[in-house]
Amino acid sequence: MQNKPVKLKNIAEKLNVSVVTVSKALRNHSDISKQMTATIKSVAKEMGYTPNYLARNLSSKKSHMIGVVVPKVAHFFFGDITECIYDYANEKKYEVILTVSQENPEKEKKNIQTLLSMQVDGLIISITQETKDFSVFRTLIQRGIPVVFIDRIPPLDNINIVEADNFGGAYKAITHAINLGYKKIAHFAGYSDINIGQERFRGFEQAMKDNNVPVMPYWVSRGGFGEKHGYDTFMELYKAKRLPDLIFAVTYPVALGVYMAARELGLKIPEDIDVICFGNTKVQEFLSPPLSCINQPVSQIAQNAVQLLIDNMNNRENYVPKKIEIDTNLILRGTCINFNSK
Amino acid sequence: MQNKPVKLKNIAEKLNVSVVTVSKALRNHSDISKQMTATIKSVAKEMGYTPNYLARNLSSKKSHMIGVVVPKVAHFFFGDITECIYDYANEKKYEVILTVSQENPEKEKKNIQTLLSMQVDGLIISITQETKDFSVFRTLIQRGIPVVFIDRIPPLDNINIVEADNFGGAYKAITHAINLGYKKIAHFAGYSDINIGQERFRGFEQAMKDNNVPVMPYWVSRGGFGEKHGYDTFMELYKAKRLPDLIFAVTYPVALGVYMAARELGLKIPEDIDVICFGNTKVQEFLSPPLSCINQPVSQIAQNAVQLLIDNMNNRENYVPKKIEIDTNLILRGTCINFNSK
DNA sequence: TTGAAAGCGCTAACAG
DNA sequence: CTGTTAGCGCTTTCAA
Asked: I need a surface site. Which of A28, A177, A275, B217 has the fewest CB within 10 A?
């Protein structure tokens, strides 16, 4: 069957008007009379007209599409934030084209290329934990393409940034722990060449210093943001008989890795070893025990990122990049709520 | 600064060849000599050429894009399956355009329209739990647009389907429970006008019947696939003093709702009330207690869906729709592993 | 092996 | 208010 898709020309012929008139009417252009607009629209509907965005965007030079690059999507944080970005972008009449880098810098680069080839009007990017070469991003900026970086941000100047207050959040959590009485505190940190690794570490370090608690080198590990880091590091410390009293995990997956290892070793949380992490999830409440955390308001991050991007897209000449930091708050559940020396 | 993007014409002029030659060379067309191809490619790279997919797709009438419509993405199942679809599709040199319906049929309809306007070559769809009007899908089929439905599938004939063996999985789980000694079994079911609601219920019912265990009407609820259903229904049963021994939850979120309610009421799982659910997650292992489930191999579903769609796209004339069912298996953890009368 | 002509479906600019 | 003319950047004939 495969009836050919109807196009403007078909509608125009049927009504004995020009293609331009139809095009304008369908877009509610003020040029066209109410009368005409109404008839054209009804005929278009009746004929089952579907606009061709490829053609529209090609000729208008605006795609009304936002490209998104995230390292993961089946992930507590990125799943959430992606969904929020869709919502806000759609609200603002933008389509979003999502790409997933799978924590792979090569793929990340390719994704950006693809998005550019699709002629997106702007990009929202969160980089992989492995990204070391930032030249792609630099090129983007040089080419004047509107970009907003969220959460995992490359160390570049003059870029749009939306992120949680990573330093402040970590500082808050560690201060809380120390006030409880904790002194043997470990930090399973992220890599130091990425902001969330760096800033969360700095917050940890500063809080320790301000409270005169020493930071032990063997209690600071640098292993990325996934379960494996939490699991492996915990196992190592256990074998070395150097378990701390509290572990501050750089992300929720890292904390989950700790839970895994602890269960395997028959250690009880929080009695034998206590944990707190950066980042909140619905399920943390149902873990055993419920996991306390530093909450970063995902929807605020998404909303600000979309807005910032739109601002940038609407004002590409002499645009000055902005940095927005979103406040965090502590959510205390079944961990890190009172100190009992191990 | 904003240096204009370079196009074929620029490369052609620089090399004193025609646009066509450049176009062909860049696509490795056999028309062009190895020599020429090499020079053109290197110059293109040097000039920072980025192909314009809008133009390319418009003129070639093939977009090499797959449209995906899912009800959610920040979700244990849909997040996973989306990521897998990206992987397989990219492997096959297709871009995927993801849209999220937010369990809203209106948005679902709009998403499909958008995807068609973007000229995707085919669609992978999982419908919302609220979708009652299936005419959009019927239109799609009539128009001969390649579509594959996954997991949540509308009741239509002659469509491509990839789903878990919902009936068999449920049957397996309930049989297991009955063999353990359970008789007072409730099913927090999904809506009955959608396959996963219907089939999982049928599996439950059949297993009960085959083992001569009565199905109590007040132990079968129909409340959708989210946490709220689990929570509300549990609360109601508790108030009515009609708690069963075991709850079979139609999805993992529903089971989570049960966990929530039980915790709030101070009831212990599995001692006071036992639970098993359809669908597996990484975190189930870390819940308290670890939640047993019927596992549906997500990546297999994704892979089959992409392959089926590509087959359909490559053979649009006289294509015969297929239905693929993926086997499930029981994963036993801390629930539904032995019967102790409550 | 290369290229000239035509056109994909639509919109912007201008004229009537 | 409506329509004509051009053209977006690329690919597909088809001729040289």
From this structure: B217
Domain ranges of chain A: 8-47, 65-164+298-327, 166-296
CA R_g for chain A: 26
Q: Which residues of B touch A2 (CB under 8 A)?
A: 143-144, 316
Q: What is the DSSP string of B28-41?
A: T-TTS-HHHHHHHH
Say if residue A39's pLDDT is above 80. Answer: yes
Q: Calculate the average pLDDT of chain A.
A: 94
- Do domains A65-164+298-327 and A166-296 share one topology? The answer is yes
Q: Which residue of A has its CA nearest to B97?
A: A97
What is the CATH T-level fold of the domain B166-296, as seen in this structure? Rossmann fold (3.40.50)
Tokens of A220: 């600071």
Rg of chain B's alpha carbons, rounded to an integer?
A: 26
Residues of chain B with pLDDT under 50: 1
Q: What's the whole-number mean pLDDT along residues A29-58? A: 91
| Dihedral of alpha carbons B235, B237, B243, B245, sign | negative
d(CA A144, CA B1): 7
8 A C-beta contact, residue B260 and residue B231: yes
Residue A265, judged by CB atoms within 10 A of its CB (0-12, 13-18, 19+), counts as middle
Q: Check whether residue A321 has its CB closer than 7 Å to nucleic acid strand C.
A: no
Predicted pLDDT at B3 = 65
Q: How far is it, in rounded angstroms, from Cα A105 to Cα A109?
A: 6
The CATH class, in words, for B65-164+298-327 is alpha beta
pLDDT at A318: 84
Whole-number pLDDT of residue B2 = 52
Q: Find the CB nearest B74 among A79, A97, A99.
A: A79
Interface check for B26 against chain A (CB to CB < 8 A): the answer is no
Looking at the DSSP bridge assignments, the partners of residue B215 are: none
User: B104 is written with which tokens?
Assistant: 């809203």
Helix spans in A118-157 (H): 135-142
pTM over 0.90: yes
Give exposure, A104-139, as e/b (b: 16+ Cβ within 10 Å): ebebbbebbebbbbbbbbbbbbbbbbebeeeebbee
Q: Which of residues 47-66 of A touch strand D (CB under 7 A)?
A: 55, 58-59, 61
Bridge partners (DSSP) of residue A323 are A161
What 3-state DSSP class applies to B248?
Answer: strand
Residue A42, judged by CB atoms within 10 A of its CB (0-12, 13-18, 19+), counts as exposed
List bases, strand D, within 7 Å of protein CB.
Answer: 1-5, 7-13
CA dist B137 and B141 (Å) reads 6
Whether B256 sits inside 8 A of A286 (CB atoms) is yes
> Do A50 and B289 lie within an 8 Å CB cutoff?
no
Tell whether the model's pLDDT for residue A56 goes beyond 70.
yes
